[in-house]
Write a structure and sequence with these properties.
alpha/beta; Metallo-beta-lactamase, Chain A; 7-stranded mixed sheet
Length: 255
Amino acid sequence: MQDGDLLILDCGSGLRELGRWLLSREAPVQGAIFVSHVHWDHIQGFPFFGPAFVPGNSFRLFGPGDSEQRLEVVLAGQMEFEYFPITLKDMRANVRFEELEPGTHQVGQVRIRTLPLNHTRPCLGYRIEAGGRTVVYLSDVEPWEEPPADNRYRFDHPGDQELVEFARDADLLIQDGQYTMEEYRQARGFGHSPVDFAVQVACRAGAARLAVFHHDPTHSDEFLHAMMDHAQALARALGSAVEVSGAADGLEVKL
């Protein structure tokens, strides 16, 4: 990989629109795709990724090395003829699958650190360092600590402490914040975080920006706006200057 190459985090439904935009540029595409885990909402966009069907394009797909099934097998499985008219073998681009163990990896000029996350199946967080900037992606992740009565996490568990250190001084932290605290108390064990936890990780880590994502599909736009208002107020109450926003389609963040 060289400067200007493409890095993609997960393969959800947004991958289709990204592919359409890349094809509109009418230029060869090469890049790396980092898959956090293989739950359906994180891979279902891959069969619709147009650039993967164009000869001359090149992609490296990375995923957890400790998964029960290899990434290539899982992606090929969702494209079997019973489910989809085009198979993985029909993709004409050069597509390589590589499995990552927890630790530090060099992908071209990009330094990648991985961290196992507390989810319902093997799931990796990614810390991406390039050009003097750091982006941390904590996908489906749940606190190890029980929900505190006052909603202020203590970060006594080593797993929660690891999250903070992993996100230390990130220019952009993208983190799961699916629930309110009230919802989370009914959804503990589902593998997702309350927005309060995401904010507190960002504040403790000294992140410059926090983009909250993995929104619950039952939440309306008004509900999400209220959640973000709460998240911003919580960050201020904790004495942090972190910029908090909700991730949304088409959002651009310049680092």
